[in-house]
Structures are given as structure tokens and as C-alpha cells.
Specification:
By secondary structure, this protein is mainly beta. Helices cover about 5% and strands about 35% of the residues. The protein has 3 domains: about 120 residues, Immunoglobulin-like (Sandwich); about 100 residues, Immunoglobulin-like (Sandwich), CATH 2.60.40; about 140 residues, Beta Barrel (L,D-transpeptidase catalytic domain-like), CATH 2.40.440.10. The strands form 8 sheets. A 5-stranded mixed sheet has the order 23-22-21-29-24, with no helix packed on it. The longest helix has 10 residues.
């Protein structure tokens, strides 16, 4: 393409390249380096997208901007929702191309900054629409938990409507799932299985934080047959940092709020054959009354270990039925022996206090039990028992395979133990 001649005077200028596409030169009679307005670079670049009023762009093809004269100094592309398209600019400024997929049925604005042989800045702004996807299959995302206030141990979950197995496709999905916290904290997604991801910080969430979760996947190509669907954004907040530490060997539970011990109580945990799980668990919910039966954990009715009891002030920490709850029948053993079938039992008064002072997402840590470590996934939230380096390996953007067992897609059973 031949460039229309331009007459430009450059007076001892220093070129300044400003981030996000604003390139200007230190020109102008008043000496102000920002006084020169960029010229229209329409004749300096070519673009592989549709012309104004033309057909819609194919969302499956990358964008490409080429310098016909001079060089490209910066390119930004965003859609109407503010999503950026990542791209690469050649070292010599001759070409820019997108490296992330475009969304279907979206309107994009492309801002191109250039400079000519004299160092004078040019600018061109283009808008275009992308067409409808060829496939109608959608990948929807549902975030959890529900909007509300939680403890600092509550992971964020993302449930997918379709399985995603390919690592490159997982990277597309994960890159579109955004988690922001205030105060800010380092965190990462971890693929639990083909349809579920969990997000947690390196350490626990800060106390009194606000966490906002959203998806930028809408319209984005995941595979040849699937594009991203819409997802309802999520906002949750955290309260105080509450951690209850149960020492199975000393038969005590100490509750810490924001790092300060506020109450120590005598407890009993699982006896031989029914040892309480070690490790960090997350409070899943609170139930004032639960009827607990031995048959729910595989104990035959009528056997010596059989039980059928009304239980009050029950705080659940696993789906398989591990609770912190009132156990008035074992008060004589609390503080001195482990006699339960896996739950942490305490007096009714202490259980009522615990029930009142913890919320969903708070942390219960068991140490010095002879039991196994809490399952990572599938029986509640054992996410915090995974070392941070291993957790990050479960991210498609970091690489590696998820740690721990993968839960089945079947509905979870919820038996109970005392």
C-alpha cells in the first residue's frame, strides 16, 4: 500500500511509548512532549478483520495487524465487557497477532499505535463484530458457595456443565475464571476432576475480606464443538479467622480467634477402629438436631457397636458424617479417653458454645489422632491438607496432575457417626 505523503517537522523529540496503546512524541512548539496529536494511521496498517459495515469476523480466526509502512508500537483489543485479547507484537513492529481466542457474538474495539520513519506517532481505532458460533453446545459454569459470609477456610468452587479433559482446553477455561480478593492474596485453581475446580489461597483468606468471582468464558471457543456459556458472578465475604484445634492425644479442643486462644474444652474423639481423621477440615454446616445411627457408617444393627441416638448442636465437617457435637453420654471420658465412633464429642454446654461461635467455612484441625488424613476431595473440603506447590500442579496454567482422589459424579451419601 502506498502511503499518502505527510509533511512533519520533528524538533529534538524523544519518543515516549505509554502503556495500553498511547504512543506520542515529544513534539510541539511549546516543548510539551504530549502536545502533538497522533495522525490517522489508516494508510499505515492493514487488518485481516472485516471492514466497516462488512461481514462479521470469524471468531475462530486470530486477529492480525500488519504495518505497511513505519512500524506498530502497540495494539490493544477489548470487547464490550472489557475483556482483553492477548497478543504478540513482532520485535521489529511489523506485525501483531492475537494469541487468545475471540468470543462469538461480541463487539471488539482494536486500538493500534504506530510511528512513521520520522518517529511521528500514528493512531487508528477499529471496531468490528464477531459472528455466531457454528456450534450450539455451551459450557456453563456455576460458582459456589452461595453468596454470604464464611470462615477464612472456605474454598471457591466452579462446577462445569460438561467434562473438560484436554489440558489445552482446561487452560482456556481456567484462564477465564477470575477470582479477586480485597485484601489481595495469592491463590490458584485446582482441577478436582473433569467437571469441578476449586480455588484457594496459598494461606487462608484474610479475615474480613471480600472475594469476587466471575467468568469471562461467555462465547469463548473451548473446543471445535463447545463454546463458553454465561455464569452468574459470586461475591462472598469472610469473618474473623476461627480455627479449632483438636488434640486427640490430650483429649482437648482449643479454639483460636484471629490467632488468640479463646476457649479450651475437654473432648473425646474416635476410639480404636473408628479413629478421627487427622488434618484440616472446613465446617460444612450446622444442624441443631441430628439422629445418628450406626448403620449409616456400616455398623450392623444389634451389634455391640450399634447405636441410635438423638444428637444436638451438631457441626458437620465431612459428608460421611463426622461432626463436632454434644455427647452428654461420654462426659466422663471427655478430657481423658477417646470413646466415639469418629466424631468429636463434648458436653452440651460446650457444644452449644461451639455451635454459636463457628460458621460455615471456619476450620477444624485434628492432630495426634491415629486415624488417616482427611480426604482431599469428595468428603467435604480437605483442600488445605495439600501443600501449596502440589496444589499449583493441579492448575492447567501451571501444569501437572491434580493431587488426591477424584470424586465420583454420583450424588454424595451423607451418613453420620458419633
Amino acid at each position: 500500500m502506498n502511503q499518502t505523503p505527510r509533511t512533519r517537522t520533528v524538533v529534538g523529540c524523544t519518543l515516549l511509548v505509554i502503556a495500553l496503546g498511547a504512543s506520542v512524541t515529544a513534539c510541539g512548539g511549546d516543548g510539551n512532549p504530549l502536545s502533538a496529536a497522533p495522525y490517522d494511521a489508516a494508510d499505515q496498517i492493514s487488518f485481516n478483520g472485516p471492514k466497516a459495515g462488512g461481514r462479521k469476523a470469524d471468531p475462530d480466526k486470530p486477529l492480525e495487524v500488519t504495518a505497511e509502512d513505519g512500524r506498530i508500537t502497540d495494539v490493544t483489543a477489548t470487547d464490550a465487557t472489557g475483556r482483553y485479547v492477548s497478543g504478540e507484537l513482532a520485535a521489529d513492529g511489523s506485525r501483531w497477532h492475537s494469541t487468545s481466542p475471540l468470543a462469538a457474538n461480541a463487539r471488539y474495539t482494536l486500538r493500534v499505535s504506530t510511528e512513521d520513519g520520522d518517529g511521528a506517532p500514528g493512531r487508528r481505532v477499529l471496531t468490528f463484530d464477531t459472528g455466531k458460533p457454528l456450534t450450539k453446545q455451551r459450557l456453563d459454569v456455576t460458582f459456589g458457595p452461595k453468596t454470604g459470609k464464611y470462615g477464612v477456610g472456605q474454598p471457591v468452587t466452579a462446577e462445569l456443565s460438561r467434562p473438560v479433559r484436554d489440558e489445552a482446553q482446561r487452560a482456556v477455561v481456567e484462564r477465564a475464571l477470575k477470582v479477586e480478593s480485597m485484601p489481595a492474596t495469592e491463590g490458584a485453581w485446582h482441577w478436582v476432576d473433569d467437571k469441578e475446580l476449586h480455588y484457594r489461597p496459598k494461606d487462608y483468606w484474610p479475615a474480613h475480606a471480600t472475594i469476587r468471582v466471575r467468568s469471562n468464558l461467555d462465547g469463548i471457543k473451548v473446543s471445535d464443538r463447545i463454546r463458553g456459556g454465561r455464569a452468574k458472578p459470586l461475591t462472598i465475604t469472610t469473618g474473623d479467622q476461627v480455627i479449632a484445634v483438636t488434640d486427640a492425644s490430650s483429649h482437648t479442643m482449643t479454639v483460636y480467634r484471629n490467632g488468640k486462644a479463646i476457649k479450651t474444652m475437654p473432648v473425646t474423639t474416635g476410639k480404636p477402629g473408628f479413629e478421627t481423621r487427622n488434618g484440616v477440615k472446613v465446617v460444612l454446616g450446622k444442624e441443631y438436631f441430628v439422629r445418628m445411627r450406626g448403620t449409616s457408617i456400616g455398623i450392623a444393627e444389634g451389634s455391640a457397636e450399634s447405636y441410635d441416638l438423638p444428637v444436638y448442636y451438631a457441626t458437620r465437617v465431612t459428608w460421611s458424617g463426622e461432626y463436632v457435637h454434644a455427647a452428654p453420654w461420654s462426659v466422663g471420658s471427655q478430657g481423658s479417653a477417646n470413646v466415639s465412633h469418629g466424631c468429636t464429642g463434648m458436653s452440651t454446654d460446650n457444644a452449644a458454645w461451639f455451635f454459636k461461635n463457628v460458621r460455615e467455612g471456619d476450620l477444624v484441625k485434628v492432630v495426634n489422632s491415629l486415624g488417616n488424613t482427611m480426604e482431599t476431595f469428595g468428603n467435604g473440603f480437605g483442600d488445605w491438607n495439600v501443600a501449596w506447590a502440589k496444589w499449583r500442579k493441579g492448575s492447567a496454567l501451571v501444569g501437572g496432575e491434580p493431587e488426591g482422589p477424584r470424586p465420583a459424579d454420583a450424588a454424595r451419601l451423607r451418613p453420620t457417626a458419633v
